[in-house]
Amino acid sequence: MSIDENTAARVAKLARIRVEEADLPALAQEFNAILGFIEQLNEVDVDEVEPMTSVTPMRLKRREDLVSDGNRQGEILANAPDAREGFFAVPKVVE
Question: Any idea which UniProt keywords this protein has (predicted)?
Fold first, then answer.
């Protein structure tokens, strides 16, 4: 795949980047270099490579999935400008 100047101008417009007409050939060349690098990456055989979550081998920390209300109602409501009966109090917006 090759990017021409018209396509480079369209990509710049979609990305909302102002590119001067004189700079379009250089931009198209950069896009083509990026696409060439991607083609090189597509040639690498990764069939027997496991996906990684990190470059260093480590297990993800796991915690037990328990449902809880957090027991922090008082702390949370302390930040509210107006709280009544254990809830946030807000102005009525529907008549």
Answer: ATP-binding, Ligase, Nucleotide-binding, Protein biosynthesis, Transferase
